[in-house]
Specification:
The chain is mostly helical and 117 residues long. The protein is 81% helix and 0% strand.
Length: 117
Amino acid sequence: MSTGWGTVFDVVGSVLLVVGSLLALTAAVGVLRLPDTLARMHASTKPQTLGLLLVLAGSALLLRGGLDGGMLLLAGLFQLVTAPVIAHRVGRLAHQEGLARADLMVVDELAEDRARE
């Protein structure tokens, strides 16, 4: 009994969609449950970005279209470029505004930099 490549792509694409969705759900739970802004920021960027990339890859496998795949690739690249920048800015702003819990930090490099200025 032989299976075609279309069936393999459908199964792999579906698995990627489910795993990516579970990672996005994990990110949402982390944002709700974690204690401070920096931890929430970490939860919202790391698993959410990987989850979105997996969903986009799964969608590309299921759609198998040239133009659709190109658009999904652009969406993934945009996510990879913007997520670290936004996380960095949110983290610095949270630290400057005093929203980061100092008791949870092992090393506070921003405070050390500010003390040198």
